[in-house]
Design a protein that fits this description.
- By secondary structure, the chain is of the alpha/beta class.
- About 40% of the residues lie in helices and about 20% in strands.
- It is built from 11 helices and 13 strands.
- The protein has a 7-stranded parallel β-sheet with strand order 3-2-1-4-5-6-11, with helices on both faces.
- Helix 1 runs parallel beside helix 2, helix 7 crosses helix 9 and helix 9 crosses helix 11.
- The radius of gyration is 19 Å and the shape is globular.
Amino acid sequence: MTILVTGAAGFIGYHVADALLARGQEVVGVDNLNSYYEVSLKDARLEKLTAQKGFIFRRLDLSDRDKMLELAETYPDITHIVHLGAQAGVRYSLIDPYAYITSNIMGHVVVLELARKLKQLVHTVYASSSSVYGNNSTVPFSVDTPADEPQSLYAATKRADELISYTYSHLYDLKLTGLRFFTVYGPWGRPDMAPMLFSKAILEGSPINVFNNGKMWRDFSYIDDIVSGIIAAMERPSNLIPPHRVYNLGNSKSEKLTDFISVLEASLGKKAQMKFMPMQPGDVERTSADTLDSQLDLGFSSSTSIDRGIPQFVKWYRDYYAV
């Protein structure tokens, strides 16, 4: 069994590929190594993957149709796709909207076309986002909750991916599962996300921007729990007609941002200088995951609290950045 992991040099993609290799799977990793954040971190993740038996890396852009579709001929024994590659970030979508259309829409369609060409393919799992719920007032967010009012272009592209996937599943009987991730954090995380931004600023003695004057709640999900959910989903394709499902993967507990900062301060051993700011365009006030479906269908369990997860992240952060 060979598994294609897109976004393999990214935060979640790296952890998924690492977990699959530990299980003895053959993994073909794809990433374009773009410069959205420090490429050296992506290179460091890749270095750890390429040192392991069974990992093959291809530097490809998802939107490059010809080269992506060639993977069907080069690796015809691919049985599963874990599609995690995308242009990430809510706020950056206000700066470069074209990157999101190219990567998240065109790239997603190219992966689905690749899925059609792979004769041995069993199942494709793809990344969606809790951002699709927008400023929904019904919490926790259920997959049955309408998700038709995205607050950012990033969220809109992820919702579009779900709709496109449903259509491909209907037209071509492709087994597809979308996973709506809720604020994933942990070792090897993205530098543009709060844990990394806050840790760097706190240790340097610089102020941290706390948006909406601190009145924000997030369903912080530890990476190990999310990886377990992704692999469980990969192994359980839908039997619906069409065979397409969407699940939430989150911690099922919404934490106030200032409480998250307090745990981070305790782990770093240093107080934060908080600069309270208004809500940023594209942001939402609260995320909260209803994971009942993923518990029942996938056996998903998110057991890592921020009191356990943040110290593990901080330990990695201090080791990696030598601080």
